[in-house]
Amino acid sequence: MMGKIALITGGATGIGKKTVYYLASKGYQLAINYRTSESEAVSLAKQLSVHFGSKNICIQGDMGNQNDCERVVAQALSAFSTIDVLVHNAGPYIHERKKMTDYTFEEWANLINGNLNAVFYLSKYVIPIMRTQKWGRIITLGFDRVETAPGWIYRSAFAAAKTGLASLTRTIALEEVENGITANMVCPGDIIDEWKDKSIMDTQSFLSSASQAPVGRPGTGEDIARVIAFLIDENSSFITGSIIPVTGGMDVLGKALKM
What we know:
Blueprint: E1 5-8, H1 14-25, E2 29-34, H2 38-52, E3 56-60, H3 66-80, E4 85-88, H4 105-133, E5 136-141, H5 156-176, E6 181-188, H6 193-196, H7 221-231, E7 243-246, H8 252-258
Parallel strand pairs: 1-2, 1-4, 2-3, 4-5, 5-6, 6-7
Helix pairs in contact: 1-2, 1-7, 3-4, 4-5
């Protein structure tokens, strides 16, 4: 996979950042999208160049905005001439617990646009490029049990968007299989903010008794990055249309519904 070009949205912080770093270590060239985290993106790109000698660019853009999506893809193509891998990591989330009728129209539109429409926008621009080279990898992110279209109290907009995205991911997989393009969804478990930027090794000193996950340790950004790297590998072509939970064995949605 040396030299493959990956565009990762929301790649400056959290799970996106860990994915960018992990892929760079595997020889990928990166187009790192960010919305507001410019300093973090620039710093990350410099680190990657120093540590791995890779070519990396940072591109600002709100993925819930169609025009921004078009511009981000154009800038990536200007720098690299193609896009082999598209990781849809960016997606707005409102931590405040709200019933559906308490969302403003603006909040609802922002959540749907950022988590569902953004994937349509970017995929519409990137898939034709992948078709010409008869190869491509598309990764989306969901949540535990998303493929069952569950109800999720206080998270109606986010759950609706991601549930729709699960279906869209599988549809892309079916429609593009003849073009050598795979599409899969990765569903992170309960990885809290402080662990999103961490590596698996960072969990070694963590007391297993303090972890709620059956595996006995917290999940990290590296756990997700490793699954993404596996799915986009040259030899993972048989895996498409899959929705893969990475939860440490925890019933994440069940836990959330009890809170």
